[in-house]
Design a protein that fits this description.
Blueprint lengths: L10 H27 L2 E3 L6 E3 L3 H8 L1 H33 L5 H9 L6 H11 L6 H8 L10 H29 L3 H10 L3 H12 L1 H18 L1 H7 L11 H11 L3 H26 L6
Antiparallel strand pairs: 1-2
Helix pairs in contact: 1-13, 2-13, 3-7, 3-10, 5-7, 5-11, 7-10, 12-13
């Protein structure tokens, strides 16, 4: 095989320059600004600033509202990631075993991927509306005094349900691709060695899906932390009482609505450190258990 050589030493850098510029403009520069503003006390218009050291971080950590948002974010992210992955895996296994009408079944499950989070939130708002929402009427008819406008648990239930529905289709695509990549010879050997379907799936199929599952776990945690902003903003706006505000949404509330630039920047830095820590745990601890 002939190895490709660049005649000009600057050509490779010119080819990657657009991508590096995008990263610098939309990630490195905002991150640097957030770190800088987290140590400053600024007026809402940004005309004056004063260095306050770690005061912004102390106020954030001591805030009961921030603690509530942190707990809700962890619980919300864990439930969304687990439920969306579990449902997608179940649907992928069922779709992989269908002989007739397989294409229609796949299309029906994947079309939700085209729905934006904000649109999914609007659909959820109509479904759970107290006046015209069919799901609201159904839950109240079962004896559940369902009221997401006043009850934190009910509001959390709505945003978790819609967020899971939005993400199932993405996970379904990856899990189905992972199932179809398992060699037929391996499946036939497993079928001969173990006739119990559940045991065969648990001991053969699931370990072979581990690389796909790890990748899906990473993107689901990222989705739960950041991409559910549109769902929360359109459905609850963090209500009632800030009980459904994730850490990302609280940054938006304090920074853009409350004009607390220093406090919101400190929250951004804490969130960045938290996400980096989770990423390290995922790739240092969980990936060691994955066999490619």
């Amino acid at each position: 095989m002939k190895r490709q050589q660049f005649n000009h030493i600057t050509l490779p850098y010119l080819l990657i320059a657009p991508q590096l510029a995008i990263i610098a403009i939309f990630f490195v520069w905002p991150a640097a600004q957030a770190i800088y503003q987290s140590f400053m006390l600024e007026d809402p218009f940004g005309l004056a600033s004063q260095f306050v050291g770690l005061d912004n971080f102390r106020e954030v950590v001591a805030s009961d509202h921030y603690a509530t948002s942190a707990v809700f974010t962890l619980v919300f992210s864990a439930l969304v990631a687990f439920l969306s992955m579990a449902l997608a895996l179940l649907l992928a296994v069922k779709a992989d075993g269908i002989i007739h009408g397989q294409s229609a079944y796949k299309v029906m499950l994947t079309w939700v991927y085209a729905v934006a989070p904000a649109v999914a939130g609007m659909i959820g708002t109509f479904l759970f509306d107290r006046s015209i929402g069919p799901l609201n009427h159904f839950l109240n008819a079962t004896g559940w005094p369902f009221n997401p406008q006043l009850d934190v648990f009910d509001a959390s239930f709505t945003v978790i349900l819609v967020s899971v529905w939005k993400q199932v289709s993405v996970n379904f695509i990856y899990f189905l691709a992972g199932l179809q990549s398992i060699p037929r010879s391996v499946r036939e050997a497993a079928l001969i060695d173990c006739r119990d379907g559940f045991r065969r799936f648990w001991t053969v199929t699931l370990p072979l899906l581990a690389p796909t599952g790890f990748f899906v776990l990473v993107i689901n945690i990222t989705y739960a932390f950041f991409d559910t902003f549109g769902v929360i903003d359109t459905m609850t706006r963090g209500a009632p009482g800030g009980g459904t505000a994730t850490l990302v949404y609280k940054v938006y509330q304090d920074g853009f609505l409350g004009a607390d630039l220093g406090g919101s920047s400190a929250q951004s830095v804490i969130l960045m450190i938290l996400v980096l820590g989770l990423t390290v745990v995922q790739f240092r601890v969980l990936e060691k258990r994955i066999h490619y």
